[in-house]
C-alpha cells in the first residue's frame, strides 16, 4: 500500500492530476499507520503481521 501510494504521488505530480496526488497521500499514510501498528505487535485486520 505504501509503494502504491508513492507511485500515485509521483504520477500525480508529473501529470498534474491532483486527485492522484490526494489518493497517493492517503494510501501512503494509511500504509505507514498499518505498518507501525503491526510492528508494535497489535493484530491488524485479524492478522498478527501486516506486510
SSE layout and pairing:
Layout: H1 2-15, H2 18-39
Helix pairs in contact: 1-2
Note down, in words, how this protein is organized.
It is a single chain. This protein is mainly α and 51 residues long. Helix content is 71%, strand content 0%. It has helices spanning 2-15, 18-39. The protein starts with a helix and ends in a 12-residue tail after the last helix. The protein is rod-shaped, with a radius of gyration of 13 Å.
Q: Name the assembly state.
A: single chain
State the distance separating the first and last CA atoms. Answer: 9 Å
Rg measurement, Å: 13 Å
Shape: rod-shaped
Average predicted local confidence, pLDDT: 83
Helix content: over 70%
Task: Report the β-strand fraction as a percent range.
Answer: under 5%
Order of helices and strands: HH
The stretches of 5 or more residues where confidence is low (pLDDT under 50) are none
Secondary-structure content class: mainly alpha
* Sheet with most strands: none
- How many runs of DSSP E, i.e. beta strands? 0
How many distinct helices?
A: 2
Structure in a nutshell:
With 51 residues, the chain is mainly α. The chain is built from 2 helices and no strands. α1 (2-15) runs antiparallel to α2 (18-39).
Amino acid at each position: 500500500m505504501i509503494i502504491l501510494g508513492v507511485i500515485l504521488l509521483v504520477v500525480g505530480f508529473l501529470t498534474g492530476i491532483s486527485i492522484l496526488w490526494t489518493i497517493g497521500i492517503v494510501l501512503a499514510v494509511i500504509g505507514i499507520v498499518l505498518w507501525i501498528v503491526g510492528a508494535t505487535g497489535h493484530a491488524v485486520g485479524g492478522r498478527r503481521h501486516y506486510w
